[in-house]
Amino acid sequence: MNLAGVIAAAALAATLCSTPAAAQEPPGGVIAYPPAFFAEMGTSTALDMVQRLPGFNFDKGAAVRGLAGAGGNVLIDGEPPVSKNDTLEEVLKRIPIGSILRIEVIRGGAPGIDMQGRTVMANVVRKQVSGTRGAVSVSVHPLADGRVLNALRAEGQWRWDGKLAELSMVHGKGPDDSYGDGPRTRYGPAGQVLIRSLVDADAQGERRWLIGAYESPFASGRLRVNGAYLDNISDIELYDHLSVPSATREDERISVDRLQAELGGRYTRRFGATSLEVVAFQQWNNNDTQARFTSAAVNRLFASDKKVTESVGRVNLRRRQTDKLSLELGVEGAFNGLDSETSLNVNGARIAVPAANVRVEETRGEVFGVATWRPTPELTVEGGLRQEASKITSTGDVRLEKSLSFLKPRLALTWAPNAADQLRLRLEREVSQLNFDDFVASSSVASTGVVLAGNPDLSPQQAWVVEAAFERRFWGSGAGVLTLRHFELTDVIDRAPIGSGVVVADGPANIGEGTKDEAVASLAVPLVRLGLKNATFRGQVTWRESAVTDPATGQQREISGLNPVSWDAHFTQDLPQWKAIWGVDVSGGFRETFYRLTEIETRKFETFVTVFAELKPRPDLILRIEAQNIGERDVRRIREVYAGPRGTAAIAYTDVRDLEWGRALFLRLRKIIG
To answer: How far apart are CA 31 and CA 25, in angstroms?
Structure first.
């Protein structure tokens, strides 16, 4: 049995056979964890603490438009952050452990808490004590290929007279470990070698961020304003040295400059048992992409200039009707705009690309109501109804106008017969948001020569979801959770032929109905009963199975890009006599396959293993050392390319590229202030 199977078996055994939890659960389905709970786990920020919560799987949220559904599964002082490009993960990194009063795990809902459509949430509750807190971190990242990437990070928090100010700065570089060095071989239909080469590929990114926030009493309520300026630059350089059919070289270079800015605000006020929340958010995204491929016979240049803006407003009213019943009503409106200019030149000639230059606008509104009823201390019922309506217009290369409307009901039930066990059930209609990146042509044309077209004429993917989760608490701080989900999908978004006439390319499209099933098993367990003092183990494994009808062949297949199995495992042990903590983090290997018009691309990522140690010579000084990628993970890309559309043409060749990103060392020194 592989490690994924061991994790799943252990989680199942824990949920079925273990002893009840020692800790008492407060009323309302909330379990509180003070900072002392994490003392043996090497935590220094809110993100470290959240990632180590028993029975909780951190989700940083989705990159969608609007605020509904965009936030992750962590609240801060009972509210989700009003930010997007400044991700939840980054927000939690900036909250030092010294400013945290406790972290709550809310299972099944609690009065006055916006669960964001989830059955389990975490809530970081900060101290309201005046003072200054912060941290400065410097890191050095030597890589196997000789590069040394450095980074500087600083954050500060000032609290006084009920007011709060926050400021953060990040400037540094980091690697992309999906690129490296290794062989590439192209085989013909009969297995003959058409191309043999050695690839030398390097990729890295640079971040230049400035983020701030201010919070203060205002108009008998509380106002928080936050802003961010984020410049993200990424570069890929790939040199392919061919020996067959002749000694030559192919070069590929891709650069992406993504400049993002956002401004958000939240005003809250209480009127007795009723609370009002008003949220406003504005963001700007400018993406400039240049991708060039050069060989002896081909000079291919792809360029894309994409500008995206979003304006969102949201109003919520929550009322604690009784101790057993709470109600919520709300409305959200948003305006989104996309301007995209795309060009493709091959050997100096301009090539037509479907949906290359477009202007897309979306006006969207949503009204919703949610009721949470707790008839007994053991039972919680949540019912909700959302009505969404939107209008999308496109001008330029693609001219269209369409209106969409969706009703989204939800029913969730949580039953906790005792402090150790909890059963959660959910029935919901989910409607995905359209991804603006699908509306315009993609830069993947540089390396493969395949045009990935844009398609503004998409409908959101919809699903009826049935979910059941069983959680068991044991050994004081141990927890095992088994979750099963079934999705009945309509308007599945996958790849299909896009365009008409002479220009027909591969692109995103609605391909009909489908199904998806997921099983998730997670386990968090202290290892003292196994003879390992001050040690903990956490792990999770997810199985996925999906089925759709392939538009190219008419046959059943899985959904593109959906990993059939993914898993991770983490071991941590405190060594108080040495003022140190050590551990092992393992990210399991996985496979993802993309089904396109004239090819099937499969990527296989091997397991990534990191051994780390944290030394604390002083309470305010932390040195972290990581030995990364101990097993020297390979990333294999397999392209099965057909002579034409896959449903009618024979396979032309199979291209296999196997890149290895070597071992690396990472060192970070963090100085805590306050």
So the answer is: 5
CA distances from 170 to 152, 345, 621 (A): 6, 37, 19
Q: How confident is the model at residue 8 (pLDDT cuts 50, 70, 90)?
A: very low
- Is the bond preceding residue 245 a cis peptide, omega within 30 degrees? yes
Mean pLDDT confidence for 408-425 = 93
In the three-class reduction of DSSP (H, G, I as helix; E, B as strand; rest coil), residue 14 is classed as helix
Residue 74 C-alpha from the chain's centroid: 13
pLDDT value of position 11: 38
CB 219 within 8 A of CB 244: no
Nearest to 86 by CA among 71, 66, 97: 71
Amino acid at 616: K
Is 15 a residue whose pLDDT tops 50?
no
pLDDT above 90: percentage of residues in the chain: 66
Nearest to 18 by CA among 475, 418, 424: 475
Structure-token match 């990070």, residue found: 153
Instruction: Dig out the tokens for 299 from the structure.
Output: 């000079």
Asked whether the beta carbons of 180 and 660 are under 8 A apart, the reply is: yes
C-alpha closest to that of 448 among 342, 593, 305, 596: 596
The string of pLDDT tens digits covering residues 216-248 is: 999 999 999 999 999 999 999 999 999 999 999
Q: Which of 150, 168, 183 is nearest to 96 (CA)?
A: 168
First to last CA, the chain: 48
